[in-house]
Design goal:
The complex is a heterotrimer. Helix content of chain A is 78%, strand content 0%. Chain A has helices spanning 2-26, 44-51, 53-86, 92-100, 107-120, 127-150, 156-163, 168-197, 200-205, 212-222, 227-258. By secondary structure, chain A is mainly alpha-helical. In chain A, 51% of the residues are buried. The two termini of chain A are 39 Å apart. In chain B, 25% of the residues lie in helices and 37% in strands. Chain B has 9 helices and 20 strands. Chain B has helices at residues 44-52, 94-104, 109-122, 138-150, 168-185, 196-202, 220-225, 230-235, 328-331; strands spanning 6-15, 18-28, 33-37, 59-64, 67-68, 81-82, 156-160, 188-193, 205-210, 213-218, 239-250, 253-258, 261-266, 274-280, 285-286, 291-303, 306-313, 318-324, 338-343, 348-352. In chain B, strand 4 (59-64) and strand 5 (67-68) form a beta hairpin. The mean pLDDT of chain B is 89. By secondary structure, chain C is mainly alpha-helical. The mean pLDDT of chain C is 87. The chains are: A mainly alpha, B alpha+beta, C mainly alpha.
Chain lengths: 259, 355, 281
């Protein structure tokens, strides 16, 4: 029974990881159409994308978008997490709802809503529109990570700072921020990674300023092109590096705390 | 007589419908060691937090050094606190923790370090100055917390159950550190605790609180020997409380008709009053006395050289007798045995109960 | 109640303003837009039921709705059933370290592009693709897997299976061990323990996991578009078609509102069911 279940688990993991592995392998496969057996090793697809100005433009946009998104989303997430930690007030659940709700609404609906709204308020097709949309999508993750950190704080810590002569602002700077630092860093990396991968909303909202995933979407819509595998592998490499860094930050913090 | 350092005048603190502190009047003199004591939820910590400016009183006035403090925010007061959790900053080392208050007051880096190191030396933990506070032992952290609170040389130090997280043997050590420190510095300590032994061991005066009310203020001896209310009598020490009704009064001698018979106690009362006689466990003796009872030993509890014997009288009233451990056998206080208990009239204490 | 201080408001106002402008605003606008009309290729802001009546009276909208509902429902059930044995194994037969590692591995897919994974499935499932290559070695096939409901379902499962597996594993790992031991002690077999202890005790978690699978599949356009070949189209594809090519934003908004109403009803019903106290039997 146990043996059977273990085998089943591996099959399931195989299903989940098969497309990732296949994509990586075939990004180095010389044949245009991926078939078995693989035909030969090549860097052709990587050379193609590196030579493509569209790739560099969209990659630059993606970097700007995810770089700005992570800062704003983390700021918003921090403000929400701190407010939730420190205060209770009437309408607090509504307050939390407007920041935590976005992940429960399908991206396609958010994409349509943003597209229509931005064209209504005259913000169509700008990099800034994508940033604004992505902050809404990623702020809940920032909030969750930072709130989790704040739930570990000794509740007397902030009061202790006031008690020793720190104003509220000073206590924020000297106590709350240093305490949340690992979570803030972790949130920056995580929200950047999520923003870097998002294509539905970016596709609707970005107009001509397309991001890298939107570039991929356009290639995929055309033909079968192993460029996609190459870009996917590259982006995966970057995302996973960001996530690993963010996880390590949390992990080492927890380890130190448990000592 | 100098002016009192702290005055609480009819202070009340309400959280929505809940009254945390009711009509508190308290005067604390300079250089005094005051312990505020009571069970959890009695309002002792709220009182302390009001002194620190972390809670604002709903009504009444709080004066410190003659100045009304009601609306002075916490960071504008000089009332450092030693926290129950210690609340050391985990991302700072021991020295930086101690420097914190000085830094907030704009003291230069050089002077900060000198003053912090002085205090760390005084607390005998200078060698751990650069250590992360999370790696220090409980006792060492305690000393860092004390140094951090005292480095600004305040007139008033607030302590919120600072020893509750320590092992028993460390508590005794820290008690002597605290009392010594308080005598040397001559500053006022306001010490909140639920532990009677801590309060009695250190404090000049004890404030006993119950459900938001101050039940009694007095020296440990006064509180121990002459509890003013039934609550204080029950909360403090190993008291025997024998309730009844005053039957006659003559020459400062009151006779109370209790379930265990008529018992005599010194005091003032009128016949018919509801009253109780309080006899401390160590005043109750085996053998006959001015007042005499019969009871059966139920169990014994050892606390070092002292033993508390628990007995039951004929009607089921529970009684406590404290004796020296070595005297136990001589007195015949063995479980299951029947004994006669007695005490001198002046060792009883009359408690008139409000109706 | 005291007025909150400037300090407190500094942390509240940015969120209220930002989320109002960039989240609540667009969401309300999309609902309002479903009542706008398009005249001469321009959207006119009015209140007319034009788009609603046009969309609701079209069969293809309802068939897309039924198909999307059916596919998302199937994905949710299928993912829950497929994940359960593996989650049970991870929760009850693995060391905490192995479980942690498995969960960590399952998080990885969330940081690979779903688009690239779908493209990869495309090449795997294609007529001359990787999978048919393997079948050919066994003397089977080729099978048509792309542009079918099967293709769509593979895409949905790629998307939701890791999440369902994580949620189910965490749910079961958090069930009080004593409950299970007690059941075993009372003579329950493994199978009966699952039905009489594990499922009831973890009900909330299982329902939430299935709900997430439903929400994600219901709103996904990538799998039905690339692997299902838009044949038949799903609701998200209707939105894309009407916005991207037809310029008919109000009609897309009608589809979006229909989707939102469906999701809210399903979510509400599931959550009520998940948190309902079980009646005593």
């Amino acid at each position: 029974m146990t043996l059977f279940l273990r085998a089943y688990l591996f099959v399931l993991f195989g299903f989940v990881f098969l497309p990732i592995v296949v994509s990586m392998l075939f990004s180095f496969n010389s044949d245009r159409f991926p078939t078995l057996p693989m035909s030969g090793f090549t860097f052709e697809w990587y050379n193609t994308i590196f030579a493509d100005p569209d790739f560099w433009r969209s990659a630059k946009n993606s970097l700007i978008v995810s770089g700005s998104t992570c800062v704003i989303a983390t700021f918003l997430g921090f403000c929400t997490a701190y407010t939730d930690y420190r205060y209770s007030f009437r309408g607090k659940s509504l307050f939390l709802a407007i920041i935590l709700l976005p992940p429960t609404i399908p991206l396609i609906i958010i994409a349509l809503a943003m597209l229509a709204w931005f064209s209504r308020v005259g913000m169509s097709g700008q990099v800034a529109s994508v940033i604004a949309a992505h902050t809404v999508l990623t702020a809940p993750f920032a909030m969750a990570i930072i709130r989790l950190r704040l739930s570990q704080i000794d509740e007397s810590l902030e009061a202790a700072a006031w008690n020793l002569g720190a104003s509220e602002w000073r206590a924020m700077r000297e106590v709350i921020l240093p305490f949340c630092k690992p979570a803030i860093l972790s949130s920056l990396f995580l929200t950047a990674a999520v923003s870097f991968d998002e294509f539905t909303v970016a596709w609707f909202v970005s107009g001509l300023n397309k991001t890298l995933p939107v570039h991929v979407l356009e290639i995929v819509q055309g033909t079968i092109d192993p460029q996609v595998n190459a870009i996917g592998t590259l982006v995966f490499g970057i995302s996973i590096t960001l996530v690993v860094i963010s996880q390590l930050l949390i992990f080492f913090r927890l380890q130190r705390a448990s000592q | 007589m100098t002016d009192p350092l702290v005055v609480l005048d009819q202070v009340e603190k309400r959280f929505d419908d809940f009254v945390a502190v009711r009509d508190a009047n308290l005067t604390i003199n300079e250089g005094e060691f005051i312990a505020i004591m009571g069970p959890s939820g009695c309002g002792k910590t709220t009182t302390l937090r009001m002194l620190a400016g972390l809670e604002a009183p709903t009504s009444g006035t709080i004066k410190i050094a003659g100045q009304v403090m009601n609306d002075v925010p916490a960071d504008k007061r000089d009332t450092p606190m030693v926290w129950q959790s210690l609340a050391l900053f985990p991302f700072l080392n021991a020295r930086e923790n101690v420097e914190f208050g000085l830094k907030m007051r704009g003291v230069g880096a050089q002077e900060r370090e000198t003053r912090a190191m002085n205090w760390l030396e005084r607390m005998e933990i200078a060698e751990f100055a650069e250590r992360n506070v999370e790696t220090l032992s409980g006792g060492q952290r305690q000393r860092v917390a004390l140094a951090r609170a005292l480095v600004t040389e305040p007139k008033l130090l607030l302590l919120d159950e600072p020893l509750s997280a320590l092992d028993a043997h460390l508590v005794i050590r820290m008690q002597s550190v605290l009392t010594k420190l308080q005598r040397e510095l001559g500053i006022t300590f306001v010490y909140v605790t639920h532990s009677q032994s801590e309060a009695f061991a250190m404090a000049d005066r004890v404030v006993i609180m119950s459900q938001g009310d101050i039940a009694q203020i007095g020296t440990p001896r006064e509180v121990y020997r002459s509890p003013k209310t039934r609550f204080v009598a029950e909360f403090v020490g190993r008291n025997n409380i024998l309730p009844g009704k005053v039957s006659s009064v003559s020459d400062g001698l009151v006779v109370v008709e209790t379930a265990l018979g008529a018992l005599k106690v010194p005091g003032e009362a009128s016949p018919g009053d509801q009253a109780a006689i309080v006899v401390a466990g160590d005043m109750m003796q085996v053998g006959t006395g001015d007042n005499t009872l019969h009871a059966t030993v139920i169990s014994e509890e050892f606390v070092g050289s002292m033993v508390t014997a628990f007995l039951e009288a004929e009607d089921g009233t529970e009684l406590k007798v404290q004796v020296q451990e070595r005297a136990l056998a001589d007195l015949g206080l063995e479980t299951g045995k029947q004994v006669t208990l007695g005490w001198a009239v002046q060792d009883g204490h009359l408690l008139l109960e409000e109706t | 109640m005291r007025r909150p201080s400037t300090y407190a408001m500094t942390f509240r106002l940015p969120i209220i303003i930002w989320q109002s402008v960039f989240f609540v605003g667009p969401l309300i606008f999309v609902v309002a837009m479903s009542f706008f009309v398009v005249k001469n290729y321009r959207m006119v802001e009015t209140f007319e039921l034009d788009s609603w009546s046009k969309m609701i009276n079209r069969d293809y909208v309802w068939s897309a709705y039924r198909y999307t509902l059916m596919m998302a429902g199937s994905a949710s059930v299928l993912a829950s059933l497929l994940a359960f044995p593996a989650a049970w194994f991870l929760a009850f037969r693995c060391s905490p370290q192995a479980r942690q590692l498995a969960i960590l591995l399952l998080i990885i897919p969330f940081f690979t592009s779903y688009l690239v994974r779908t493209f990869s499935w495309y090449t795997i499932l294609a007529e001359a693709g990787v999978l048919n290559g393997v079948f050919a070695l066994l003397g089977l096939g080729p099978f048509t897997m792309l542009n079918t409901a099967f293709g769509t379902m593979v895409g949905y499962l790629t998307f939701v299976l890791p999440l369902v597996l994580i949620l189910q594993t965490v749910t079961m790992a958090n069930i009080d061990d004593r409950l299970i031991q007690a059941a075993r002690n009372l003579g329950c077999s493994s199978a009966r323990t699952i039905f009489s202890v594990v499922l009831p005790a973890g009900k909330t978690g299982f329902v939430i996991a299935a709900l997430f699978a439903f929400i994600l599949s219901f709103g996904d356009f990538v799998a039905p578009f690339y692997l299902g070949g838009s044949n038949p189209p799903t609701m998200p594809i209707l939105i894309i078609d009407t916005t991207k090519s037809g310029q008919q934003w109000p009609r897309a908004a009608v589809v979006a509102v229909m989707m939102m109403l469906t999701l809210f009803s399903v979510a509400f019903a599931s959550i009520m069911y998940a948190y309902r106290k079980r009646a005593s039997r």
